[in-house]
Design a protein that fits this description.
Four copies of one chain form a homotetramer. By secondary structure, chain A is an alpha/beta fold. Chain A has two domains: about 160 residues, 3-Layer(aba) Sandwich (Rossmann fold), CATH 3.40.50; about 160 residues, Dihydrodipicolinate Reductase, domain 2, CATH 3.30.360. Chain A has eleven helices and 13 strands. In chain A, the strands form two sheets. Chain A has a seven-stranded mixed β-sheet. A six-stranded parallel β-sheet of chain A has the order 2-1-3-4-6-5, sandwiched between helices. In chain A, helix 6 runs parallel beside helix 11 and helix 7 runs parallel beside helix 9. At the A-B interface, strand 7, strand 8, strand 9, strand 10 and strand 13 of A face strand 7, strand 8, strand 9, strand 10 and strand 13 of B.
């Protein structure tokens, strides 16, 4: 039996999501990375920048040219926002699928997008071809899209935590609190004093007091999921570790439900999902349980003496929160098994 | 001018709060540790167990006897719960002040206490002599007490965050969410697989799903502060770092107030406090800003588009959250300057 | 084409090398774990103890019985020393291959073994069937053995660093210094105060002052490799990280050789090895370049102004230093491709 | 009794040694920081850059002018190399003592200095006024100097480890190996990708393959101490922690000496030193035993079966390895108790 091989281009592969795509795709048996581009590192071998890839990739970074990318089946953008938008017309016109790991296509309301990202949006005409690549919520749209807006890491962990509650209309969506915590790889590989080991180790802090860009993204998707206005308070925090993200989500139940009912409801909601694991009642997920893997593990908890429900969910911010989910979306787009290349077992300890 | 020297006994000095008391008291010029007890380590020099104290203390652990402790002016209990309770009658009868770093005297409602701690309370008669040792809230009671219930670490960080809002009756106290995060030293020095470096490093998790004992402690004190019933949802989390605690507290404002008004209100509330620092608007505290020091630093934040107020506060769980606050209480009890021995500057980086 | 499937038993699977074997074997397409034993955890599902395995293994720990293990093709011992020795006769008699990740068969001189391990050796008769499972040095012996003594982590990193120098008789083998550094997972999963996160984080130390058991193991193998007496000074150190091992090895060149000659010699020595990577001149390996992978990366360095040669090598102590190398040995024993199941790319960042 | 107050200027106070000087001097009762300069941060309050100093210093960074600095008793240079050299003439001419925490005056052989630092040395005439500020070796010179070359961190830990052996002419000084390990704060506060938390956490590596500048510094001082040529191989390593430095030093004994003799010799050598602690035989120092303190703790070890002696020593690279030793030198220069301001107990855990 002959197998399809998807030809892949990666734009902007020098950051952490770029190297993570390469790590994951190295064990994908129906994918071939044919080009990885970087203006600043053109000519440098990827294995010289990322020695974990020595012996695995002989590829060098190249200039991002339309010709090279148009010869691919799919192009991943592991770039700052604005870049995917600038090349999306040419690529989709050539029949190339686009998976943007940045934010260019994440928010349907382009006025909101422009306000938070400080740019004019240049692809309004392409928005009908876009799907928000959270397969557990929007799989059918993903199948038919030409452009995938790969979700932010916080939205991935928080929307998955809320989906069972919203699907069943169980909570007051006007008052949701999401307290998110991320490892430092989420801040990227840029030289930044605040992210030095001597600054972030052995310390914990909230950040983003002026507003985090994942807030409007979540508001946009929650409104779509709930089909009504929602109220979300979101505070992100920085954890002294490399990888991992935990979100604790608090909401008020509209009608009383016990722990057992909630547990069953969550388990049923995700029974058919490969990459969402509802932990047994009484246990709580830890980020190390998903380190290096594409899993989202979660637990639902019903504190006694109130009408609150608490959901805690964990992902690896670079995998299910970025590169792994991008590959999952690629698999869906090309009709491959959804878990191809995504069988990594979390590294524990 | 002659100076008082307070003679100090420490019961159960082998844990982290014990060594932290010794570290702090080493630079207190009106305090002398005359006895430090441990059944299991009797005869061992404290500096052999804690080599950071080599050359500073020549003291050895001794058996905890009433005679030795009755010769002290004050006895700190750095023990599991239940121990202070068992010696409090004899010590207070001899005029010795008791500062309990465990939980024996933290909850006024002794039925609630017994439920959470699984013990009969044997000191009901002494409760009128007890003050909850959070000086910024209960300083006058501390001054006149014979027994200090030194607060838990989470309650310290969360009650201080809420005090300005409750004092001015600004929030709906029936629906408060406190998302707490602690370094691993809070779990103590017991051999425990889950606290091994290979288990807790590079991971983040919620814990205490079955209910954390600091919840009833906070409920008890918040009701006292608010003079009404309160509703508190509290989820503690474990951070891969040794020291430090951050709490993010979420509440709904009853009447609208802007960022500036809240900022002013918080600054005024703590203007006279040595150990509470309200950070400037727009900044956020980090736990490293208080590492090794007795400070609590906090920020108040008013997210746009809702009626929420968010307060984030940080302490060193072993200092303001334990041993430092205990020394602060001792200073108040004996009429010493409240900051004696507590001038450590946080270790940064 | 039909493929062999190797039936595998794992004795003592509750420790870190046990879970690491399971992680690696999960992606080995010619291996099936049919039994994993633990006296203390019998009946517990492995995924309940190691939640990274949820959804991957449905297996439960079972009592270690000879019947079950004799039905396997190979049995891995991820146990304390002494256990493999107690079952080796029965298993090898039944034609089952034994791979011992502990130390029972690592030292040919059984008097030395007994001195360091404090036990009588009960398998002297089996020693002719044993190979020391460092394939890059002893591959031919491994192919024909029935029992594999899987090397210690320090010996793996240090012997590989020295092999090119010894093969070419370049150094004075009577005066070698090996300064080793290990992450804390090397200490295992036992509850041990010194390995608590609050104790080992943010600290670095030498240990093993009374002598580390990997010293006689290395002496034994170095003598075999050099065919003469050797002198080795070995000091192990503990690094505040979970995984990873670095060794810096210092020796005196007998005849002068430049950096370029040494570089070429090292590259040639390992040109055909899948799991040893000689880094380019001027670069130095970092443990993160092998995290989760079976690679050993090394660099050779010739400091000016002396006759010293320095080799630094890195491995993941749980993979090439334990479970990965054990699977590599299994592959050799059963004629499978040596890298089957061992294509994990190091997790970076 | 009236007390002297030393008026202090700090040039280049924005780095880690700058903030560490401020932390230490905050508890020095005979010192007053009157100026702290920074071109780039002029006008910024030090507490805004280093929030651990909030409430302790009201001082702002100022432009470095000769007038301001000439009004000081002593000026610390916490700058890159080359800066102290450029101001030393003016300051010493005005009777101001200079303590350079950088390398300008560390190497007596100025040709060697120029080769390693790539600059012309402009203060040859001042070299007779310079002392190398390692008080335990060169205290008498320090007392009479006008300029202190504050030692590098590696040299501090390694020279102190070797002093007893060299003083008694016990080792072959032509073949010394020093394997050094440093926390990341040693790399300073500059934005540097390699020092990002996501890069250096959970990893260990050797570095400085092209030669570390502390090597010629140590060679220079060891020759002075040994009064003969010496041979030193030095490989520095980076440890994933903020503070702390450990050095393991290996040498060959010229005549056999047992563990006990060596232990006695080390203890006697440092019996009168406040800041050097020889640990008991059989114990080993850990960097956490000196975190935040000015202590150097060490152990001497005699491996059986060879003529090697091993010394392991630990310091806090920012305290005894930089700012603390600088204050110790200041105390000596001004006739103050050598431990003034240096009574911090190491922060453990």
């Amino acid at each position: 039996m002959e197998q399809t091989t998807v030809k892949i281009g990666i734009v902007g592969g020098t950051g952490y999501t770029g190297v993570e795509l390469l790590r994951i795709l190295a064990n994908h048996n129906q994918a071939q990375v044919v080009a990885i581009t970087s203006r600043s590192e053109s000519g440098v071998k990827v294995a010289d920048m990322y020695p974990n890839l020595r012996g695995i990739y002989d590829l060098a970074f190249s200039e991002p040219t339309v010709e090279v990318l148009q010869a691919c089946d799919v192009v991943f953008f592991a770039t700052p926002h604005g870049v995917a938008m600038s090349m999306a017309h040419e690529l989709t016109a050539a029949g190339v699928k686009v998976i943007d790991l940045a934010a260019d296509f994440r928010i349907n309301d382009l006025a909101v997008w422009s306000k938070w990202y400080g740019l004019e949006h240049t692809c309004e005409d392409l928005m009908p071809q876009v799907a928000y690549g959270l397969p557990e919520v929007f799989r059918e749209q993903v199948k038919q899209a030409n452009i995938i807006a790969n979700p932010g890491c916080y939205p991935t962990s928080i929307l998955l935590a809320l989906k069972p509650l919203i699907d069943h209309d169980l909570i007051d969506v006007s008052d949701i609190v999401a307290d998110g915590k991320s490892g430092v790889s989420g801040a990227g590989r840029g030289a930044n004093v605040a992210m030095l080991g001597a600054e972030m180790s052995e310390s914990f802090k909230a950040y983003g007091v002026a507003g985090h860009r994942h807030l409007p993204e979540m508001q946009d998707k929650l409104m779509q999921m709930a089909e009504q206005n929602i109220g979300l308070t979101f505070v992100p925090h920085l954890v002294p570790m490399i990888r991992g993200m935990e979100s604790s989500v608090y909401a008020n139940l509209k009608t009383d439900m016990g722990q057992d009912q909630l547990q069953t409801l969550f388990e049923e909601c995700y029974a058919d999902e490969t990459f969402v694991d509802v932990m047994p009642a009484g246990s709580l997920p830890e980020t190390r349980m998903v380190k290096g893997s594409n899993m989202c593990r979660m637990a639902v908890y019903r504190p006694p003496g109130s009408n609150k429900v608490v959901v805690t969910s964990v992902i690896d911010n670079l995998v299910k929160g970025a590169a792994g989910q991008a590959v999952q979306n690629m698999n869906i787009l090309f009709g491959l098994p959804e878990n191809s290349g995504l069988n990594q077992v979390a590294l524990l300890p």
